[in-house]
From TrEMBL, chains A, B, C, D:
UniProt xrefs under SUPFAM superfamilies: NAD(P)-binding Rossmann-fold domains
Full protein name: Oxidoreductase
Lineage, broadest ranks: Eukaryota, Fungi, Dikarya, Ascomycota, Pezizomycotina
UniProt xrefs under PANTHER family: OXIDOREDUCTASE, SHORT CHAIN DEHYDROGENASE/REDUCTASE FAMILY (AFU_ORTHOLOGUE AFUA_5G14000), OXIDOREDUCTASE, SHORT CHAIN DEHYDROGENASE_REDUCTASE FAMILY (AFU_ORTHOLOGUE AFUA_5G14000)
Organism encoding this protein: Aspergillus nanangensis
InterPro entries xref list: NAD(P)-bd_dom_sf, SDR_fam
C-alpha cells in the first residue's frame, strides 16, 4: 500500500515506544527506530502478525550519519506515502550522580541523546511532515519529556540539561512550524512507567506506575487535534505521584 | 434511568460550554449551569431532542447560596446516579482596563467569578465525585483556564488575578484529591474561541480561532485517562497563535 | 523635613516588615501599616529614637475604607514629600486545611488579604509613586510572595489562591507601570523566616531560617536598581531548603 | 597578597563581563577568562592601574583541555587564596536561523558554549569554592541566562537549547551545593545590554538597554547574601521591555 500514511517512532523498546507504535499502527504503517534491533523486533513482529505494517531500522539517534542514513532509507521506501506523525521517545542519556563524580562523557550524554538526538530526528522528519498531504489529521511531531524537563534536581545535572534542551527545541519548533501546519508537542512523563524494567519496583499504592498504553493514547489524542486547537504541552503522572 | 452517570457543566453558553455538554451527553446525563437560562436552553433542548438527557439549572456561580441550592437539587434528583465529571467553565470576571481606572467591584469580579466560583463549584461537586462508583473512567473535575492563567498582562489585573487563583485552586485540589482517585485537571485555552460572539472577528489566517468541539474532545480525552496516567495541565491554541 | 522622601511598608509586625522598615528608614521617613498598633509600635519607636522618622497608622489592609482613609492621611501629611517606595508585605490569609473542611470565609480570606489587599494598597500608592520627583532611585512597589505563589499544595488552596492572585497583580502592574518609570517587583520568600513566632521551631541544620534583615537588604537592592535594569522577580530561601 | 580572596569571571568582553570584573575587583583579585585576550586585556589593565589585582587567562570555555589547563594555573598561582566567587558569563553559541537551515555544527554550538561550557567551568570552580575559608560572604557561583533561558522562540532553537541546558545545570548545582554552603544563582538578562557592540542600536525610548554596571551590582548583591537567604533566580530587564 504505497500511499498509506506512515509514522516514525524513535526510541522503541519494550515500554512506551512499543505502546506508541502499537497505537499508531492501528491507522498507519509504523517505522520503529532503536540502536539495538532486539528492542524493536518484538513489536515489529507483533504488528505485522496482526495485520499491520511495521518496519524496524537500527539507528543510533545521537549519531548524525546513522540518523541521516535512516531517513535516506525512509525517503526511498516511503517516497509515495505521507508522514503523518513522528515521535521522539529516546530514553538515552540518563545518569544520576553527584556532579563532581561525572565524567565529561557522562555529562554530555544527556545532551547527546536528548538535545542533539532531538535535533537530528526533527531535521530528518520535518521536511517529510511539511510535504505530507491527504492526511486525516495535521502532521505531528511529538517529543517525550520527563520530570527532569522542568526541574534540575540534585545529581540529575546531566539528564536535566538534556531534557531542558529537548523542551527548548520542542518550543522553538512549535513556534516555527505550527504556523506551517505541523503540530509540535512535548509530553512530560512525570513518574515511573510500568515497563518490563520496572516490573519489580513496588510502591505503597497500587497503580502507582504510568501505563504505557495510556501514554500512547494521549499521544494519539494530540495527533488527532485539528490545527485550530493544538496542545503544546501535557504532563502525565500517576494519581499518587508527589509533585 | 436512575443509575446512568451524570456530568455537571458550569458555565454553559453557546460556545465551549455547549460543546462540552454535547460531548459528555454522548455518555452521560448532563446538567448545565448558567445564570441566564437563555444560555443553556438551546443545548439542553438539542441534547434531549436527540435522545440524550440534559437538564439546565439557573445558577449564579459566584453566589454561595445559589450554588448550594443547585447542588441540593442535584443531590436529590440524582441521588442514585454517580457523578462522572464536573467541569468549571465560567467565563465571568473578564475586564480589560488600566489599573487606576478599575473600581473595586470591577477588580474583585475576576476573583469572584473564577477563584470563589471555582471554590463553590468544587465544594459542591467533590463530595459527589468522591462517592461515585461503577464508572468507566475515574471521576473527573476540570477547570477552564486562559492565557491570563499564566501571564498577568498590562490592563488584565482583574481577570489575571481570578485566573491565577483558579489555577492555584486546581493545583491544590489535584494534589489533595488525585491520591483519592479524583482526576483534577486545568486546561489553558490560549486564543480566541470560535463562538457566536466572535464570529465577526477576522484574522489574517484561516482557522485562527479555537474550535469549541475540539476543546470538548480534549476534555473528554482527559476524562478517559486511567488513574495511572492523569494529565494535570494542557495548553490549547490555534496553530497561528503567537505565544 | 517636608521634602524628605518617604516609604510605606504595609504589613509590619516584629519580623520581615520591621526589618524592611528599619532598612528603608536609613534613607527615608517610613510609614508602617498594620491593623494592630502593637505590631508596628516597637519598630516605630525604635526608628524615631535612633534619629529616623517613622509613623504607624492602624490599617485593615483588606478593607477599602480603612486603606482609603490611611492614604488620605498620608496624602495630607506628606503632601510635599515624594513617595520613594511602597512595600506590600501582608502575611494575612494563611490557612492550612483539607479543602472540604474550609468554610467559605476561610477560603476567601486568602484572596481578601493578598489579592484584594494588594489591589487596595497599589491603588493608593501608585498615584503617589507616579508623581514622585527628585528621587535618587526609581519609585518602587514591591510585593511579598511565598512558596504558595508558585505552587498550589494540598491543603493550601486558600492561601495559594491569594498568593497566586497577588503575583498576577504584581506582573500586570509591572507591565503597565514599568514603562511609566515605576519599578514593580515580586519577591518569593520560600521558607520559614526567623521571627519571634518561629523562634522555637528547630531544624536539623543551623541557619535554616530566612533572616529578615537579609530579606530587607534584597528589597533595598531592588529599590536601588536603575530603570535600565529592573528585576521583576527574586526567590529567596535558606541554603538547606528543599525546593 | 597571597591570601586575598579571588574571583573568576568567565566570558569577559567589553560589556557585562568587564563590569562584573570591575565590581568584584573592589574586594577581590579577579581572574578574567576569554578566548581572545583582546577581550579582557583592557579591563585587566584598568583594574591593575587603579590599584586592584587582575589577571587574564586565554581560555576556550567549551574546550575541556583549555578549561582544565586554566584551572591548573589558577590552582597553582592562587593556592593560598580562597575562591570567593565564580561567574559564568559566556555569550557564546548565539545563532538565529530557521531550523532547517541550521547545520549540525551551528545547532550544537548553543550547547557547546552554554551547557558544556557551564559544566566545565563548574567542574573547575566548585572544588575551589567548597574549600574556600575565611570569606566575608558565602562562596558564590553565578550563571548568566537570557530570554532564551525560559522561552524557545522560533529560529532560536540552537541558542535556547544551550540556555535551557545552562539553567538546568544551575538548578541542579544549587540543589546539590547549596546545602554545602555554596550559593549558586542564575540571572536572566532579558533585553539588549548597552555595550560597545550595541551602541548604534536605537530604541523608541531612552534608557531602553540594560546597563552592565547595574547587572554587575545585582551579581554583587547576590554574592553578599548570607546562607540563610540565598536567591536562586533573578530576571533583569529595561523598564520599557515587552515581556
Amino acid at each position: 500500500m504505497a500511499t498509506k500514511p506512515f509514522a516514525i517512532i524513535a526510541g522503541v523498546g519494550p515500554g512506551t515506544g512499543a505502546s506508541i507504535a502499537r497505537q499508531f499502527a492501528k491507522a498507519y504503517s509504523v517505522i520503529c527506530l532503536a540502536r539495538n534491533p532486539a528492542n524493536f523486533d518484538p513489536v515489529v513482529s507483533e504488528i505485522n502478525a496482526s495485520g499491520g505494517h511495521a518496519l524496524g531500522i537500527s539507528t543510533d539517534l545521537s549519531d548524525s550519519a546513522s540518523v541521516r542514513s535512516t531517513f535516506d532509507k525512509i525517503s526511498q521506501q516511503y517516497a509515495n506515502s505521507p508522514l503523518a506523525a513522528a515521535v521522539f521517545n529516546s530514553g538515552g542519556g540518563f545518569v544520576r550522580k553527584p556532579f563532581l563524580e561525572l565524567t565529561e562523557e557522562e555529562f554530555t550524554q544527556g545532551y547527546e541523546s536528548q538535545g542533539k538526538g532531538g535535533y537530528l530526528f526533527a531535521k530528518g522528519s520535518l521536511p517529510l511532515l511539511l510535504k505530507a498531504t491527504g492526511l486525516a489529521h495535521p502532521p505531528t511531531l511529538i517529543f517525550t519529556g520527563a520530570t527532569a524537563s522542568l526541574k534540575g534536581s540534585a545529581n540529575f545535572s546531566a539528564f536535566a540539561t538534556g531534557k531542558f534542551a529537548l523542551r527548548a527545541l520542542a518550543q522553538s519548533l512549535a513556534r516555527e512550524f505550527g504556523p506551517q501546519g505541523v503540530h509540535v508537542s512535548h509530553v512530560i512523563v512525570d513518574g515511573v512507567i510500568d515497563i518490563p524494567r520496572t516490573k519489580a519496583w513496588t510502591f505503597e499504592h497500587e497503580d502507582a506506575k504510568l501505563d504505557p498504553e495510556a501514554i500512547a493514547a494521549a499521544y494519539w489524542h494530540l495527533h488527532t487535534q485539528p490545527r485550530t486547537t493544538f496542545a503544546f504541552e501535557l504532563d502525565l503522572r500517576p494519581y499518587v505521584e508527589k509533585w
